[in-house]
């Protein structure tokens, strides 16, 4: 390879015999010294063999961002609070390694995206932790809820934005929907699939639309994010009826068995269908984040041995959500692995069993087929159109209340109660 003055972090041109690449030069791993790594303008990293490279031209030397951003308050705008807990929306590219790293302060986010101040002042910021959302558990949901609760009780704050990673965002949205009772202001979760300093980042539109929703009359826990792959508008989605449906697209989150609450453009919001937003100023929010963490979610597959439930019983699991097939069937009398005896056994021993649909869209109806009717007789609670992640979080929340968990009948009653919009009487697409 020809000698070059290029260093990791520099923006370069890499010349091959028949092709020229542009991007950020990255540090090569110790065990791959014969490879040159760099990040293309589309965000992907590639590696080239040194012997194939004719020339590396430095287009721009690496220079870390050092400028300071100061937030300014506009007395004519309402105030909102923000809770930052990590995720891609709270990260930026490390130009030397090609990986992303946490932003060092909230001001860094505002430096990249001052649009969040277009409709409101961010007057208070809480950051209980910074964590990849795939690393979170129910204890983190509790901490987020505490931070949101503190901001909601500030009379000068009209609503709260929570910035969060995408991988488990719909779990957190569900948890906050149950933990924050008598909600009187908007709680808006938002995200980005691409780091803040990338030209293609979705953070700008998501934050701008989230700030508009945070000062609206939608007194619910909602998720705001791209409606499609363009930068035209966002959807507002109910916290208990949303799911991540794509691993990388900017419009990763979709409503399940319902319609979006609203469309949000950078300068306006359009309420959809029959939803009637009301800011409930007469209510006072209170925190109810009791939670039983010994729960599980199982996906049934053909031929699965029902003895898997013994494992969870041995581990002290209090409740299990099982994803049934079709309208609500799993192997019964005609199978070599009949689940009915085991379901009866574990429920007698204190394990509460719920059923959701593997199909995601649609509703369970155990009374259509004889197998479903027999499974229903075991005591399994069929959760209609509630999707599995919501069911899991709700089960943990219900079991966390000792008075509700005192009997299977009380647990059943609470699981079938429509507490935070988790059930739909009529399925919508």
Distance between the termini: 57 Å
What class would the helix/strand composition place it in?
A: alpha/beta
Give the number of domains. 3
Mean pLDDT: 89
Beta-strand share of residues: 15-25%
Helix content: 10-25%
The total of beta strands comes to 23
Q: What's the total helix number?
A: 9
Just give the CATH class of the largest domain: Alpha Beta
Apparent shape: globular
Q: Which runs of at least 5 residues are low in confidence (pLDDT < 50)? A: none
Radius of gyration: 25 Å
Question: What is the topology, as strand order, of the major beta sheet?
Answer: 9-6-10-12-13-14-17-18
* CATH H level, superfamily name of the largest domain: L-asparaginase, N-terminal domain
CATH architecture assignment of the largest domain: 3-Layer(aba) Sandwich
Task: Could you tell me the CATH topology label of the largest domain.
Answer: Rossmann fold
Largest sheet: 8 strands, mixed
Please tell me about this protein's structure.
The protein has 429 residues and is an alpha/beta fold. The protein has three domains: 11-60, Roll (SH3 type barrels); 79-287, Rossmann fold; 295-415, Rossmann fold. The chain is 21% helix and 24% strand. The protein is built from nine helices and 23 strands. The strands form six sheets. The protein has an eight-stranded mixed sheet, with helices on both faces.
